[in-house]
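pasting for ref. prot 1 ->
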Amino acid sequence: MRLVVDLNKCQGYAQCAFLAPDVFSMHGEEALVYNPRAEEEQREKLARAVAACPVQAITADGLHGAGAGSDEAARESSDAH
């Protein structure tokens, strides 16, 4: 998964660091440090962290992709029959 944090929006509330500490951490009181390429095992924690950001500064490409892709493939398969 690819993460992007808009550091201009980020206000340092640290909800993401609390919910996904293996991906996000605070350097000092206001500087956020994060891994832009999060591991698949972090999916659930990342979903919570993204949802908890009070200023919606975090986006995650591929966060909901696995389920959506599977549903789409199932629809295409049933349409072909």
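and prot 2 ->
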Amino acid sequence: MTPPIVVHPPATGGGRRVTAHAEQLGIAFRQEDVSEFLRHAGLSEDEIQLDDPNLIEWRGGGPEVWG
């Protein structure tokens, strides 16, 4: 099963698209942006675990890759 959140590969111009169930949440330029998008989507601080593969699928590199 695919995790509900996908952080897509870095774009040529910078940033990574973040989607939840195929709905775009925004373009992240750092890990904090991903966390902020998830808070706005209704997740609590306790639910946001950027290294949880059941929550987030990182494509094109993990949370340390931004460009």
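The chain has one domain: 5-58.
The mean pLDDT is 94.
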